[in-house]
Amino acid sequence: MEDDDEINRFSNLLTDEDNKPNAFSTEQNDSPNHELLQKHFLRSIQSTVTIRLLPSEGLSFQLWPAATSLVALLDSHRINPTNSPLSTVFATGAPMRILELGSGTGIVGIVAAATLGSDVTLTDLPHVVPNLKFNAKANAGVVGSSGGNVTFAPLRWGDAADVEVIGREFDVIVASDVVYHDHLYEPLIETLRLLLVGKKTVFVMAHMKRWKKECVFFKKARKHFCIDVLHVDAPCNGSRVGVVVYRFVGKG
Ligand SMILES: C[S@@+](CC[C@H](N)C(=O)[O-])C[C@H]1O[C@@H](n2cnc3c(N)ncnc32)[C@H](O)[C@@H]1O
């Protein structure tokens, strides 16, 4: 992906030291691409999801803070759905068809499939799909034991043909840390319009605010969607803000 150097996962807000994850463990192996295998234990299903990260290949191959927050919320939702911020989205308890945009490593979609027993389609730019495939296959056992299923496909924001191929029959769209470069605001909103407007589909977006310019995304998005806040994470040590989880529904 272009412009990778302009952004790091905690830029303007946090140092990596402040954000040392404690909910997962990471192992590095000696492969030429310096891959990392990260193990996330899900209390709700007493199972571990393992994700391959390829940090040397760019920001699409790393785990971002909003993804970690959404994973924790999905795990808590499965334990106690009544008191969960996600209860209005996953209200029925019935399996749902879920689409993830800008999946990166795919962990959010994989955990959604495993904790909700849902059919999930992971998507990202074409060059990211092989790693999505790897991670989907690595976790097929855990996901299958919960009655879920994970597939993967390329979906470039703003590309109507990609949406046509995947279809528009989803109950919920999810994404984490997808608002960052301003040239991506319009394409992302266009894809969301195709998927949400005139339908009951809900979009759940976990977002870590980094720059003031991000208010432009929300201003543009509010023309097409009603947006409310489902959850705000407490800021981690040293940060000014925590991850916010929004719900979007199409107007009209
Ligand atoms: C900051 S990363 C977040 C990744 C992941 N959701 C997470 O939270 O760990 C943004 C993701 O959006 C994807 N992305 C960027 N531009 C895109 C576009 N035009 N179409 C589809 N995906 C895009 C990137 O490849 C990347 O995986």
From TrEMBL:
<dbReference type="InterPro" id="IPR019410">
    <property type="entry name" value="Methyltransf_16"/>
</dbReference>
<feature type="compositionally biased region" description="Polar residues">
    <location>
        <begin position="22"/>
        <end position="31"/>
    </location>
</feature>
<feature type="region of interest" description="Disordered">
    <location>
        <begin position="1"/>
        <end position="31"/>
    </location>
</feature>
<dbReference type="Pfam" id="PF10294">
    <property type="entry name" value="Methyltransf_16"/>
</dbReference>
<dbReference type="InterPro" id="IPR029063">
    <property type="entry name" value="SAM-dependent_MTases_sf"/>
</dbReference>
<protein>
    <submittedName>
        <fullName>Uncharacterized protein</fullName>
    </submittedName>
</protein>
